[in-house]
Amino acid sequence: MFKLPRITFVLGTRPEAIKLAPVILTFLKYKGFETRIVFSGQHKEMVFQVLDLFDIKIDLNLNVMKRGQSLSSLTSKILERLTKDLIKNQSQLVIIQGDTTTALAASMAAFYQKIPVAHVEAGLRTGNILNPFPEEVNRRMISQLASLHFAPTKDSFKYLKKIGVEGKVFMTGNTVIDALQMIVSTQRNKLNSRDIFKQKGKKMILLTIHRRENWGKRIEDIAVAIKETLISNPNLFVLLPVHKNPIVKNSIEKILGLNPQVKIIEPLKYSDMVIAMSECDLILTDSGGIQEEAPTFKKPVLVLRETTERPEAINAGTAKLIGTDPENIKTETNKLLNNLDAYNAMIAAENPFGDGKSSQMILEKCINYLNTY
Fold first, then answer.
1. In whole angstroms, how large is the CA radius of gyration of the chain?
2. In the chain, at which end, N or C, are there fewer CB atoms within 10 A of the end residue's CB?
3. Which one of the listed residues 6, 34, 140, 243 is annotated catalytic?
């Protein structure tokens, strides 16, 4: 009896779920594959919110997350548990996204079983193995194991061709644009309702901080800069969805928790985050994904990091890398709040991340690959 090729998607965090959701839906519609979704459990609640939004059901939860566990422990658990599943449910292709611990461990598990790996959002680099940590090394290692490399931009495509990775390299655009277009089309009524998060008559900053390399003093420096910026801008309001990690949450609440101009809330559902991005005036973030998403809504982004693996946003002018020095944060934030020419220049910049057709291209390349593999 003929069996369809089995494709296994592996994901563990909210960004992976967001960026793989349109790809998964495209594969599920195609009747030439049996498509499975394995969830590592790395970001449990936040991932299920995204999957529910896109009406995607997982086939297996590896349940690896444990409070306070080390990266070594997390990696080994995913590797061991996913290996058992891949032996039981033999796949012809494993598809991963990005540079998380889940993505690295999944690529290793597939490689050990001699299963080809397709890497969505391949080729991102900062050039510093400790920033971001551990993502920079994760994605470098994945590039050595993958057979299909789906680069989101011209720069990432050129980089992978330059270093000569094994396998096939394609420029597909970024699947986050596909996801955003789906959300906008299905959540249009919500997106059109104004002042959901804003305070009347005030400009709004959307602030997100969560990256490991910013933990500790850098988060506190960011919070101090925001506090002082608010003093000089009484008509400014900050919406701050705080990561559940107590290291992040406690540092922020210690400095901004009682500030009446700051609304600290639980992490937003992805659909609500899309609304927040569409409603705000300015975004300050250390998130990689938001650097890609904000240009769709014509929102300037100030990146609270020392490096970025998304130089396309910086080069296009949709984002600016400002680091975590409090004085620099205050200067750059005030410039965009009070200099209309500077603000308009950023919102007029062209989106460098694609046209929303990435998922279909990825499907087509995978079909072609398996037909000749």
1. 20
2. N
3. 243
E-strand ranges in 113-215 read 117-120, 148-151, 168-171, 203-208
Of the residues 121, 213, 221, 272, which is catalytic?
121
Please indicate whether residue 99 is annotated as part of the active site.
yes
**pLDDT tens sequence across 31-66:** 999 999 999 999 888 899 999 999 999 999 999 988
Q: Considering the entire predicted model, what is its pTM?
A: 0.82
Per-residue CA distances from 180 to 39, 58, 119, 194, 349 (Å): 22, 21, 20, 18, 18
Domains of the chain: 6-174+355-372 (3.40.50.2000), 189-347 (3.40.50.2000)
Per the residue annotation, which of 6, 34, 212, 228 is the catalytic one? Answer: 212
Write down the catalytic residue from 14, 43, 81, 99: 99
Q: What is the pLDDT of residues 279-320, one digit of tens each?
A: 899 999 999 889 999 999 999 999 999 999 889 999 999 999
Tell me which residue has tokens 């057709």: 357
Largest Cα span, the chain: 72
Picking from 47, 42, 96, 95, the residue whose alpha carbon sits closest to that of residue 73 is: 42
Residue 318's CB: how many other CB atoms inside 10 A? Answer: 26
For residue 342, is pLDDT > 80? Answer: yes
Q: Can 212 be counted among the known catalytic residues?
A: yes
Residue 194, pLDDT > 70, answer no
Residue in the structure block whose two tokens are 């608010």:
230
Catalytic hit among 36, 210, 211, 218 = 210
Q: Is 135 a catalytic residue?
A: yes
188 catalytic? Reply is: no
Which of these is catalytic: 16, 135, 281, 286? 135
Which residue spans within the chain are E strands per DSSP?
6-11, 34-39, 60-61, 93-97, 117-120, 148-151, 168-171, 203-208, 236-241, 262-265, 282-285, 301-303, 319-321
Average pLDDT, whole number, for the chain?
A: 93
